């Protein structure tokens, strides 16, 4: 009874379903008219599938994208004059103003999506529930975007299983991250109040409810870590706020939780500095030096080039924030003007009666050469 797409069984809807018989076969024909919201939902799901396949193909190439991630982060800083807030603001008016936990909000990585690659992730950014921010990262359109693989957030040459997270309460796997923002010194540094003078020298760039401007980095951006690579053993959805995407640094054995890579035969990790450079942090770095790199106003004196060598991008500048600029057309060289060759003036005629190159002057014969008389040979003996 009733018709598809309708709530009233006695009222015909736009969609139809027909069942007919063709010889020994039953033919079922369905013609659906979708509402705009349902159409958008289906298209978003299809796009998510395409993005998963595309992201997996890019990761299979083994190319490192940490420099592209660094470029995207700095493009955001240039546009907004600050690093992203650690977790997105979420409307809490329907719960008496009680703030949502950080892990119930979206992460800072959402904010740099438009600046990654050639604008590949702007669509993701526009799909997110950010205007009213009424949903967590694992609800509605946000969850559809969460299922996308973003290669910039993943370390190169890692196990494919580490690219995805099976999160409790979420039906399908969501995209992972192998990078986190540094909150400062202390495991609870992401919760520090920047107005508290007792923790002023322990603050890092990222906090759950704060953002950092470049001028606030008193230790200079070149000596301050913004983002760092972490082991893949802990599953971290890139879209999730909280501890999945922000970490504090322990007081002792400070670098140990971050050791996850190898560079030139040494174990350690890769870090994106607040000036956009990528550096290698060896696992042998002292606690004091590593903690100095993780604060914005610690006041320590360090030789960053000595303790954390720079890692240049592997061939070519990173791609960021929009379509690549096409190469300039070749400059056509104008033909150089050749110097004008002036004809030589005619040679003057010789005096009358004298030949030129054995030729007679016109109308006059050449006189014969005079023969000298034969001289007798001298007598012999």
Provide a descriptive summary of the structure in words.
- The protein is α+β, with helices and mostly antiparallel strands and 381 residues long.
- It has 2 domains: 14-61, no CATH class; 64-307, no CATH class.
- It has helices at 36-60, 66-80, 122-127, 140-146, 287-293, 304-307, and strands at 16-22, 25-31, 164-165, 174-175, 179-185, 225-229, 246-249, 261-263, 266-273, 278-282.
- The strands form 3 sheets. Strands 5, 6, 7, 8, 9 and 10 form a 6-stranded mixed sheet that branches. A two-stranded antiparallel sheet has the order 1-2. It has a two-stranded antiparallel sheet with strand order 3-4.
- A hairpin with a 4-residue loop joins strand 9 and strand 10 (278-282).
- The longest helix is centred in the N-terminal third of the chain and has 25 residues, at 36-60.
- Residues 321-329 have low confidence and may be disordered.
Number of strands: 10
Main sheet attributes: strand count, strand direction, barrel closure: 6 strands, mixed
> What is the terminal-to-terminal distance?
155 Å
Class inferred from helices and paired strands: alpha+beta
- Quickly count the domains: 2
Tally of separate helices: 6
What general form does the structure show?
globular
Q: Assembly state here?
A: single chain
What is the ordering of alpha helices and beta strands?
Answer: EEHHHHEEEEEEEEHH
Please report which band the strand proportion falls in: under 5%, 5-15%, 15-25%, 25-35%, 35-45% or over 45%.
5-15%
Helix amount, in percent?
Answer: 10-25%
Which value, in Å, is the CA radius of gyration?
A: 39 Å
Spans where pLDDT lies below 50 across 5 or more residues:
321-329
Mean pLDDT: 82
């Amino acid at each position: 009874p009733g018709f598809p797409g309708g709530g009233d069984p006695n009222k015909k809807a736009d969609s139809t379903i027909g069942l007919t018989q063709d010889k020994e076969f039953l033919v079922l024909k369905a013609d659906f008219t979708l509402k705009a919201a349902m159409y958008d939902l289906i298209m978003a799901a299809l796009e998510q599938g395409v993005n998963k396949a595309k992201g997996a193909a890019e990761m299979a190439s083994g190319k490192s994208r940490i420099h592209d991630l660094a470029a995207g982060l700095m493009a955001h800083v240039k546009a907004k004059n600050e690093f992203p807030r650690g977790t997105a603001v979420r409307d809490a008016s329907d719960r008496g103003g009680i703030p949502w936990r950080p892990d119930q909000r979206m992460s800072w990585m959402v904010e740099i999506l438009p600046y990654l690659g050639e604008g590949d992730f702007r669509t993701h950014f526009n799909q997110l529930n950010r205007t009213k921010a009424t949903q967590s990262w694992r609800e509605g359109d946000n969850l559809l975007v969460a299922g996308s693989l973003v290669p910039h957030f993943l370390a190169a040459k890692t196990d494919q299983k580490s690219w995805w997270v099976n999160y409790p309460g979420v039906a399908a796997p969501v995209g992972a991250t192998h990078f986190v923002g540094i909150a400062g010194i202390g495991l609870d540094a992401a919760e520090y109040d920047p107005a508290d003078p007792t923790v002023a020298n322990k603050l890092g760039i990222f906090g759950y409810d704060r953002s950092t401007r470049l001028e606030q980095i008193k230790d200079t951006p070149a000596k301050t870590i913004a983002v760092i690579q972490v082991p893949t053993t802990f599953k971290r959805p890139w879209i999730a706020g909280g501890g999945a995407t922000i970490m504090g640094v322990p007081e002792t054995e400070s670098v140990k939780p971050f050791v996850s890579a190898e560079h030139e035969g040494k174990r350690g990790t890769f870090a994106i500095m607040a000036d956009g450079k990528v550096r290698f942090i060896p696992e042998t770095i002292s606690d004091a030096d590593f903690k100095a790199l993780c604060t914005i106003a610690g006041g320590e004196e360090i030789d960053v080039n000595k303790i954390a060598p720079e890692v240049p991008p592997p061939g070519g500048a990173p791609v960021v924030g929009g379509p690549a600029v096409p190469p300039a057309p070749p400059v056509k060289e104008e033909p150089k003007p050749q110097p004008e060759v002036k004809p030589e003036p005619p040679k003057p005629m010789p005096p009358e009666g004298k030949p030129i190159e054995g030729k007679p002057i016109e109308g006059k014969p050449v006189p014969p050469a005079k023969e000298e008389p034969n001289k007798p040979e001298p007598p012999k003996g």
